[in-house]
Amino acid sequence: MIITFEELQAFLDEQFPQGAAYGTLQKLGDGWAEMKLEVDEEHLRPGGTVSGPAMMGLADVTLYAALLSKIGLVPLAVTTNLNINFLRKPVAHQPIWARATMLKVGRTMGVGEVFVYSEGAEEPVAHSTMTYSIPPNR
């Protein structure tokens, strides 16, 4: 791991303050990250469940954190592909957690996966795979 939790948190606060709306960094390791989203009314969809966009946002920012743990503080690493499978209904009004793991980090691309869970649940509510583009002159 080439950055610390504190360095990444400071970077996100400064460079991506709107990212806090998608979740807060909880843990960071070499090629992995965990984030938590406190679910409230703005994250719910009709039917009383957490919306897909809320889960996608959490997954995306969590994988960004995992990628940066491998490549350093690179603002222009951007999502180029995001696939998500919604596996079961998340619990409304309960935090959701995401754990992202980088599968491969190359010179210009990073590929990873994210599992999203309702707090306290063993089975994931969503699974996502993503590809990030890494700028050549980082």
TrEMBL record:
Alphabetized CDD domains for the sequence: PaaI_thioesterase
Thioesterase domain segment(s): 47-122
Claim: Chaperone is one of the keywords in the record: no
Domain of life per record: Bacteria
UniProt EC number: 3.1.2.-
Molecular function terms from GO: fatty acyl-CoA hydrolase activity
A Pfam short name: 4HBT
Coiled coil stretches, renumbered: none
Gene3D superfamilies found in the cross-reference section: Hotdog Thioesterase (3.10.129.10)
Cross-referenced InterPro entries: ACOT13, HotDog_dom_sf, PAAI_dom, Thioestr_dom
Family indicated by similarity: Belongs to the thioesterase PaaI family.
Protein name per its UniProtKB record: PaaI family thioesterase
Organism in which the protein naturally occurs: Marinobacter sp. MMG032
